[in-house]
Amino acid sequence: MPIEPRSDSAGQGVRMVRVDPERAGQRLDNFLLGQLKGAPRSLVYKIVRSGQVRVNGGRAKAERRLEAGDEVRIPPVRLPEAESTGPAPKGLLAAMEASVVFEDTRLLAINKPSGIASHGGSGVSFGVIETLRNLRPGQPLELVHRLDRDTSGLMVLAKKRSALTELQALLREDHGAGIEKRYLALLLGRLPGGTLSVDAPLHVGLRQGGERHVQVNGNGKPSLSHFKVIERIGGQSYCEVRIETGRTHQIRVHAQHLGHAVAGDDKYGDEAANKRLRDNAGLKRLFLHASTLSFALDGGKTPYMLNAPLAPELATVLDRLA
């Protein structure tokens, strides 16, 4: 619950916000994104690093887990103007409505199309969460996790606070091992058979302009991915990837570290190879798809296995490579 806004030596409009029990365990950066609607992550990290954000009067890191009753100092910030305050575009609403692959009383799962952000901000008015709230006004919906804008596939939203809290606890368990996450990816070149495991720490840095760039770095966070070839096709390797941690750009950077970047990756990939695949197979996007999520709620008593079929445009690429 918010405490009365007050000013201090840092200026006017400082807010002091008390963390309620339902937010206990949430990372500081995600808590701030909820408080500063529309703020880009780069801005959130900037105000945390500069010490403008305080927890119980002291500096804190973005990944700090908050506890019920913590007092968070939030400085005044200038947020980007939203491009539109009206309803989401009809085409986006229709696409999101058609993307639902599972629903029960507490969860909603979608097969997110590539090109749609998880949430608005940084010039994007409507991401997944804003569009679904447009479709279902009055229904409480919260993102359980996020997918990169260019990645397609399974995203889970919670319809009840109890489900959100339990799923967030599973995501924290052993760096995210409480939820099994599998992806489908086309990697450049021919990987050897069997399972290739990449155990390489990842560090997130910010380039000029606030763009996130991730690299393997001994000072980074522990990160573990397992790559298994399903089929070698057209000189490339169609793989299933299981990740035991959920770091930013993890699969893309670990694939690059292997020397077999994800096809269509314009940030960590091979520009010449991407052009050949675009010309020869029509690949116009990142070939990375979140295919399966497995977890259990109610203390392990209620299992879920959710699946999202491969995006049609990626299936077409495989057909053309065959």
UniProtKB/TrEMBL annotation:
Highest taxon listed in the record's lineage: Bacteria
Record keywords, A-Z: Isomerase, RNA-binding, rRNA processing
Entry keyword annotation includes rRNA processing: yes
Domain RNA-binding S4: 26-85
Enzyme class per UniProt: isomerase
GO function term, MF aspect, one: RNA binding
EC number(s) from the headed UniProt entry: 5.4.99.-
InterPro entries documented for this protein: PsdUridine_synth_cat_dom_sf, PsdUridine_synth_RluA-like_CS, PsdUridine_synth_RluC/D, PsdUridine_synth_RsuA/RluA, RluA_PseudoU_synthase, S4_RNA-bd, S4_RNA-bd_sf
Gene3D superfamilies linked to this entry: Pseudouridine synthase, RNA-binding S4 domain
SUPFAM superfamilies cross-referenced by the UniProt entry: Alpha-L RNA-binding motif, Pseudouridine synthase
Active site per the UniProt annotation: D148
GO terms under biological process: enzyme-directed rRNA pseudouridine synthesis
Reactions mediated catalytically: uridine(955/2504/2580) in 23S rRNA = pseudouridine(955/2504/2580) in 23S rRNA; a uridine in RNA = a pseudouridine in RNA
One Pfam family it belongs to: PseudoU_synth_2
Role summary: Responsible for synthesis of pseudouridine from uracil at positions 955, 2504 and 2580 in 23S ribosomal RNA.
Family membership: Belongs to the pseudouridine synthase RluA family.
PANTHER family: MITOCHONDRIAL RNA PSEUDOURIDINE SYNTHASE (PTHR21600), RIBOSOMAL LARGE SUBUNIT PSEUDOURIDINE SYNTHASE C (PTHR21600:SF92)
Protein known as: Pseudouridine synthase
